[in-house]
Amino acid sequence: MRSKAMPPTTFDLLADDDQQPARTEQIGEQSFVLRGFALPWVEQLLPVLEKILLAAPFRQMVTPGGFTLSVGLSSCGTLGWTTDRSGYRYTRIDPVSGQPWPAMPEVFSELAQAAAREAGFHHFEPDACLINRYLPGARMSLHQDKDERSYDPPIVSVSLGLPAMFLFGGFERNDKSQRVPLFHGDIVVWGGVDRLRYHGVLPLKDGYHPQLGGQRINFTFRTAG
Ligand code: SIN
Ligand code: FE2
């Protein structure tokens, strides 16, 4: 099993499939699904997540168009992503608590950096971790991540709990999307030429996960500021 101690030296973007780690799937020129990459970290992630959620509980946010997102949102890190009637943006203060967003735990940023490295993105310095909670029926429609200051750093997206069907599209909303099933512990990394690809999540199916129960949690790490 890979761990954070394993150097990424065996990973060569131009290598033949059979030379790549068995559980890395390429879904774009610079886009990868790292199957099970987060599994060795889960025991450390969950108690820290619990603390973050005490300070910044999941909340339903409203889009500028007046729709309430079905996914519950929270954040940790210097910057947290929020939306309300006046627009999408990153803030230093959690608008619900009036306090700064909880700091990004070291284990979070280490995992995100290790995953980014595995996908060929070195020196990833995330300052924002969006935490999404999907209950059955919750979905995320196709969108691009465009609120960050620079599109040079990649997106690192960690899946925990119930499985979901991730849609990985093209550069136009109507381009055909790949359907990528994501399971507990999987990480998707996309960046470089793929940084602005549309993506989304189909409505979550009912189920039960032994560690997370009837929900899916997603961490999306970005360099926002
Ligand atoms: C997102 O695009 O913010 C979330 C993606 C996911 O939940 O897998
Ligand atoms: Fe996104």
TrEMBL record:
Superkingdom to which the source organism belongs: Bacteria
GO CC, alphabetical: cytoplasm
The protein's required cofactors: Fe(2+)
Entry note: cofactor: Binds 1 Fe(2+) ion per subunit.
PROSITE patterns attached to this UniProt entry: FE2OG_OXY
Keyword Membrane: no
SUPFAM superfamilies to which the protein is assigned, alphabetical: Clavaminate synthase-like
Sites where the protein binds substrate: 81, 88-90, 147, 173
First and last residue of the signal peptide: none
Entry's Gene Ontology molecular function annotations: broad specificity oxidative DNA demethylase activity; ferrous iron binding; oxidative RNA demethylase activity
Region (Disordered): 1-20
Binding site for Fe cation: 143, 145, 199
One record GO biological process: oxidative RNA demethylation
UniProt domain Fe2OG dioxygenase: residue ranges: 125-225
Listed name of the protein: Alpha-ketoglutarate-dependent dioxygenase AlkB
Natural source organism: Pseudomonas frederiksbergensis
Species lineage: Bacteria, Pseudomonadati, Pseudomonadota, Gammaproteobacteria, Pseudomonadales
